[in-house]
TrEMBL record:
Domain Thiamine pyrophosphate enzyme central, chain residue ranges per copy: 222-357
Record's keyword terms, sorted: Amino-acid biosynthesis, Branched-chain amino acid biosynthesis, Magnesium, Metal-binding, Thiamine pyrophosphate, Transferase
InterPro entries: Acetolactate_synth_lsu, AHAS_TPP, DHS-like_NAD/FAD-binding_dom, THDP-binding, Thiamin_PyroP_enz_cen_dom, Thiamin_PyroP_enz_TPP-bd_dom, TPP-bd_CS, TPP_enz
Annotated protein name in UniProt: Acetolactate synthase
Transmembrane region(s): none
Family, as annotated: Belongs to the TPP enzyme family.
Cofactor section: thiamine diphosphate; Mg(2+)
Residues in Thiamine pyrophosphate enzyme TPP-binding domain copies: 424-584
Keyword Transferase among record annotations: yes
UniProt xrefs under Gene3D superfamilies: 3.40.50.970, TPP-binding domain (3.40.50.1220)
Organism encoding this protein: Streptomyces smyrnaeus
Domain Thiamine pyrophosphate enzyme N-terminal TPP-binding residues, every copy: 33-147
E.C. number(s) listed in UniProt: 2.2.1.6
Pathway(s) where this gene product acts: Amino-acid biosynthesis; L-isoleucine biosynthesis; L-isoleucine from 2-oxobutanoate: step 1/4; Amino-acid biosynthesis; L-valine biosynthesis; L-valine from pyruvate: step 1/4
Length: 620
């Protein structure tokens, strides 16, 4: 992600001392508090929104926000909500998300969203208050070593004790968060540093020795990758979230159409390549399409772009893509070779990698004429056979109740153009990935790496605040929704009319699916009501989500009749002055297919329960 895209300025290098003094003395800048310096620094780096909640040690920073600051503060109901809202804002806008919390429990409540942003490479700056410098290390009231606690789940963090250091630290934090591989940065500021007096100076001096992200790929590696693509007969472009972070979707489309190679997009890469494009095979991995999973297994060349060969994609690692050579391009050199050795490692920004690869392929084509379609004809015949034989699909319940896949599919089909979708974690997340068509980048936001329940509602809030002219639907489960639904109050009070679809099956759906498949249908503690274990459709649904939504200033609607499905969705789409919550009562036995069981090979993908695809002589 470039600095221009985020609005974060590059810290200025330290000026050399010429040994000469200025003949005209500079007028002394007015003295202000560290807190005032913090807000001014946020304005200078282009931050326009902060999600947070005040408390004792961060309180000095809240006072100058009242003085016509250009920074909008959104008062959340829980710090976890602040972190996920900042993440949704960042993912939807491409800018750095900002959240703020006080010391102790306020800061520790940010750990989950920090870890979430770290796993999914989201540019985030979290600002926390800390006890006064003299009290650090004494177990003072509401003291927590948040720098130590968050070190494994942040790209970098700072502890600021001197008010003079605040502008430089904020500039560096935004620079680190938004460059190289994006990620979360924590700035912990002692209360006396916020209260102390300082002189604000901008731009500050950079002090980031050793931080030099490589963005330009090596030409030799690019040429070798182009050669392999030219020689391959079963190539696959394996596209991850790094392509979205780099703003490289246009370059990806050029490369794909130039080569004619099939494209798979990971859970974090959805939207990087249009779902409706004929070369798109869908999502690979544990719940990926049969065509995408199998294409990677049978490939002779995988070109990984901004992806990290995580376990949910590879399945049993030593059996993943056994015949494929690997071209691995990523801006983070630590990812290359971490899980799968690369035949051609390329360190660089995905946009530059793709642009250079297109040029190199054009040069190769000039030397070796021939249409890619001719080279890949047999490959596409296999791929099309797999797509036709094992398409995505679902059965409607025999009892006439709503199928969750049907609900999500119709929400996608009836949503306005450019709608942003967020999702929690579990079955509804996989169905939303499969049954909504994503043809634009930054329209699918979810917690991929950490798998955070409770992500959807606050992320939708953040996305709507950042993109107020776009419709935003949160696809959530009844389990996930009960973790962070209090942020609907935030949405209602801050003019963020998001729409929430609760896929209510009365259970922790994905856990229940695993209990069905792997635990002999022993449904231990997965039912979310007072009915019998294993019978989510029975018993009283508590809470009543419609009443809960209305109590929080939203419109509440319930839908359990398939005949009313479209009318309910259209009603929700038409309401734009308040958040809308729709409680969709769905059948409890629906499962996510396809599926690769944890710890097994992708060769053992199941298209449906008990249905293992027959690939015939595809290895010949």
């Amino acid at each position: 992600m470039t600095e221009q895209a985020t609005g974060a300025p590059k810290p200025q290098p330290r000026a050399r001392n010429s040994g000469q003094s200025n003949s005209v003395p500079a007028q002394a800048a007015p003295r202000i508090t560290g807190a005032q310096s913090l807000i001014r620094a946020l304005e200078e780096v282009g931050a326009d929104t902060v999600f947070g909640i005040p408390g004792g040690c961060i309180l000095p920073a809240y006072d100058p926000m009242m003085d016509s600051s250009r920074v909008r503060h959104v008062l959340v109901r829980h710090e976890q909500g602040a972190g996920h809202a900042a993440t949704g804002y960042a993912q939807a806008t491409g800018k750095v998300g900002v959240c703020m919390a006080t010391s102790g429990p306020g800061a520790t409540n940010l750990v989950t969203p920090l870890a979430d942003a770290h796993m999914d490479s989201v540019p985030l700056v979290a600002i926390t208050g800390q006890v006064a410098s003299g009290a650090i290390g004494t177990d003072a009231f509401q003291e927590a070593d948040i720098c130590g606690i968050s070190m494994p789940v942040t790209k970098h963090n700072f502890l600021v004790r001197d008010p003079d250091e605040i502008p430089r630290t904020i500039a560096e934090a935004f620079h680190i968060a938004s460059t190289g591989r994006p990620g979360p940065v924590l700035v912990d500021i002692a209360k006396d540093a916020l209260q102390g007096r300082t002189t604000f100076q901008w731009p500050p001096t950079a002090e980031l020795p050793g931080y030099r992200p490589v963005t330009k790929p090596h030409g030799k590696q690019i040429r070798e990758a182009a050669k392999l693509l030219t020689e391959a007969r079963r190539p696959v472009l394996y596209v991850g979230g790094g392509v979205l972070k780099a703003g490289a979707t246009a370059e990806l489309k050029v490369l794909a159409e130039l080569t004619g190679a099939p494209v798979t997009t990971t859970l974090m890469g959805i939207g990087a390549f249009p779902d409706s494009h004929p070369q798109h095979l869908g999502m690979p991995g544990m719940h990926g399409t049969v065509a995408a999973v199998t294409a990677l297994q049978k490939a002779d060349l995988i070109v990984a772009l901004g992806a990290r060969f995580d376990d949910r994609v590879t399945g049993k690692l030593d059996s993943f893509a056994p015949h494929a050579k690997i071209v691995h391009a990523d801006i983070d050199p630590a990812e290359i070779g971490k899980n799968r050795a690369a035949d051609v490692p390329i360190v660089g920004d995905a946009r530059e990698v793709l642009a250079d690869l297109v040029v190199a392929l054009q040069a190769e084509a000039a030397e070796h004429p021939g249409e890619p379609g001719d080279r890949y004809a047999d490959w596409w015949a296999l791929l099309d056979r797999w797509r036709k034989t094992y398409p995505l699909g679902y059965d409607l319940p025999e009892d006439g109740s709503l199928a969750p896949q049907q609900v999500i599919q119709r929400i996608g089909e009836l949503a306005p153009e450019g709608t942003i979708f967020t999702a929690g974690v579990g079955q509804h997340q996989m169905w939303a990935a499969h049954y909504v068509t994503y043809d634009q980048p930054a329209t699918w936001l979810n917690s991929g790496g950490l798998g955070t329940m409770g992500y959807a509602v606050p992320a939708a809030l953040g996305a709507k605040v950042g993109m107020p002219d776009r419709a935003v639907w949160a696809i959530d489960g009844d389990g996930c929704f009960q973790m962070t639904n209090q942020e609907l109050v935030t949405a209602a009070l801050n003019g963020a009319p998001i729409k929430v679809a609760i896929i209510n099956n009365g259970a922790l759906g994905m856990v229940r699916q695993w209990q069905t498949l792997f635990y002999n249908q022993r449904y231990s503690n997965t039912v979310l009501h007072n009915g019998e274990e294993g019978e989510p459709s029975r018993g009283t649904r508590v809470p009543d989500f419609v009443k809960l939504a209305e109590a929080m200033g939203c419109v509440g609607i319930r839908c359990e009749d398939p005949a009313q499905l479209d009318a309910v969705i259209e009603k929700a789409n038409a309401i734009n002055d308040r958040p809308v919550v729709v409680d969709f009562i769905v059948h409890e036995d629906a499962m996510v297919w396809p599926m690769v069981a944890a710890g097994t090979s992708n060769d053992e993908v199941m298209a449906a329960r008990g249905v293992r695809p027959d690939f015939g002589d595809s290895d010949d």
